[in-house]
Amino acid sequence: QPSAPPPGQNAPFDFAQAQGNTMAAGLANEVLSSAQATAKETLGVVQHYLQKGPGSEGVGWLCCVGGLATTAVGAFGLLDVFSAIFEPLEYLLNIYFLVFGMTTCVLEAPDDWLRRSGKLLSARQFLETYTRFLATRGGRGVFYLFQGSLWISLGSTMSISFVLGMYLLFLGLLNIALQYQMVPENIKGARLDPVKQHHDVGMHTCPPAVATTFILSERIMLRL
User: Fold this and answer.
1) CB 189 within 8 A of CB 51
2) pLDDT of residue 215
3) How far from the centroid of its chain's Cα atoms is residue 68's Cα?
4) 28-54 b/e with 16+ CB inside 10 Å = b?
5) pLDDT mean values, one per 10 residues, the chain (224 residues)
């Protein structure tokens, strides 16, 4: 029967193991703290844009960012020309994503972009004419839900596709909630001016003449 090692012989090994465990625990805490700080900062940014309302400076800008990301990832997938031969379905999906992303960018482009680019404005008007369901927040929400489900079905957990898909699912649910007024006013922000709301991101609520008449009558009533 082997004799037990003398006391203190395993002390260096135990000390090294304990030190390794301490370093691993410290690294895990640091990563967790960094993740919590990033998540808190991200939520703060999202809430900041939510409070600006559903226009191009608020939720519309969040959707535009999603469109830019979709366009970039889809275009990057098209760089692998060999997948067109060996995985043609995946290559075709990247073409779809590129088109979907560009469509989202046109729909959600800020007003400054529209004023600077006549082609972008013409593309917006074309989409509003021939894809009328995308002129409402509810229609766009369904469109984003469709994109998000496709991204999630293609990527594994915590991949770029999965993260982008979850973001688009969030945008889809948010737009549907805005369409049916399920977002609290303290989160959504102030109600948009009727004239601005008519010109903003394809939200056709009322003609400009009616909106202008409403504003003038309201101001007259306030003075009386």
Assistant:
1) yes
2) 46
3) 9
4) eeeeeeeeeeeeeeeeeeeeebbebbb
5) 55 62 72 60 55 62 92 92 88 94 93 90 92 90 95 83 93 90 58 40 39 43 44
Question: 169 and 149 in contact (C-beta within 8 Å)?
Answer: yes
193 is written with which tokens? 């001016």
Structure tokens at 200: 């903003």
- H or E segment to which residue 203 belongs: none
CA distance 63 to 131: 18
Assess contact for 110 and 64: CB atoms under 8 A: yes
HEC string of 33-93?
A: HHHHHHHHHHHHHHHHHHCECCCCCCHHHHHHHHHHHHHHHHHHHHCCCCHHHHCHHHHHH
pTM of the model: 0.62
In contact, 182 and 202? CB cutoff 8 Å: no
